[in-house]
Design brief:
Blueprint (H helix, E strand, L loop, with lengths): L7 E7 L4 H12 L5 E8 L6 H7 L4 E3 L8 H13 L5 E4 L8 H4 L6 E5 L11 H8 L3 E8 L9 E8 L6 H24 L3 E4 L2 E4 L38
Parallel strand pairs: 1-2, 1-4, 2-3, 4-5
Antiparallel strand pairs: 5-6, 6-7, 8-9
This protein binds 5-O-phosphono-beta-D-ribofuranosylamine (GRF).
The site of 5-O-phosphono-beta-D-ribofuranosylamine has 15 residues, from helix 1, strand 5 and helix 6.
């Protein structure tokens, strides 16, 4: 198990306000052992609020708008090329509202990670929080997973439940889910930076930290950042057009 001696180069893709981007930047800034560096922030929208956070942090930004009716493969190639110009090694989808094809994913095999505001495989797609609320679930949550060619489907790195409250609105529930995402996404990105994720079919196995004792001998992980909870074995579900 080789742990890189230098920071892993991270590209972050956003479409919205970028609170998950901010949480990742904060986690990197406050954890000297994170071993990750955001080298570029990309968006499909020039008005994505998160772009300003990137600029404020002095991080290069790229915007590739997908015009209606435009050649999607060409758009994706341009976006990938612009991330590659920054030698990105891991791509973090932090509220990126576009589906990426296998052609894009093949450039970063098992190195594209997404956060989704539901307990997958429930409520895949762009309206996960609203649909969970409308369905009347008592518990929803968030999922951080590697991205494959199906929507909100790849191997799960971490999940955490968030209870639905009686007077919840979509915004209130989403805010509480985001508060969890802000912890879970950086923790999972950190695992990728430390090369501690192994994929076996749909299952993601998290390797112990380099300096951890043999797990059966001493259970607690000495890592300063708590590792996310291991994911259960999810079942596939039908896809939809946009990724939330
Ligand atoms: C997050 O809830 C994420 O799961 C979903 O979009 C939201 C992005 O929020 N895909 P932000 O832009 O990071 O604030």
């Amino acid at each position: 198990m080789g742990r890189p001696a230098r920071a892993t180069r991270l590209a972050v893709l956003i479409s919205g306000g970028g609170s998950n981007l901010c949480a990742l930047l904060e986690a990197i800034a406050t954890d000297p052992s994170f071993e990750g560096e955001v080298v570029v922030v990309g968006s499909d929208r020039s008005d994505a609020g998160g772009l300003q956070h990137a600029r404020d942090a002095g991080i290069p930004t790229v915007v590739e708008v997908l015009e209606r009716g435009a050649d999607r493969a060409a758009w994706e190639d341009r976006l990938a090329a612009r991330l590659a110009e920054h030698d990105a090694e891991v791509v973090v989808l932090a509220g990126f509202m576009r589906i990426l094809s296998g052609r894009f994913l093949a450039r970063w095999p098992d190195r594209v990670v997404n956060t989704h505001p539901s307990l997958l495989p429930a409520f895949r797609g762009a309206h996960a929080v609203r649909e969970a609320l409308e369905y009347g679930v008592a518990v929803t949550g968030c999922t951080v997973h590697l991205v494959d060619e199906q929507v909100d489907h790849g191997p799960i790195l971490a999940q955490e439940a968030v209870p639905v409250l009686a007077d919840d609105t979509e915004d209130r529930l989403h805010d509480r889910i985001k508060a969890v995402e802000h912890r879970l996404l950086p923790a999972c990105v950190r695992l990728l930076c430390h090369d501690r994720v192994r994929i076996d079919g749909r299952r993601a196995r998290i390797l112990p930290a380099d300096d951890a004792p043999v797990p059966s001998a001493v259970p607690p992980d000495p890592d300063p950042v708590p590792d996310p909870q291991p994911a259960p074995d999810p079942q596939p579900a039908p896809g939809s057009e946009e990724r939330p």
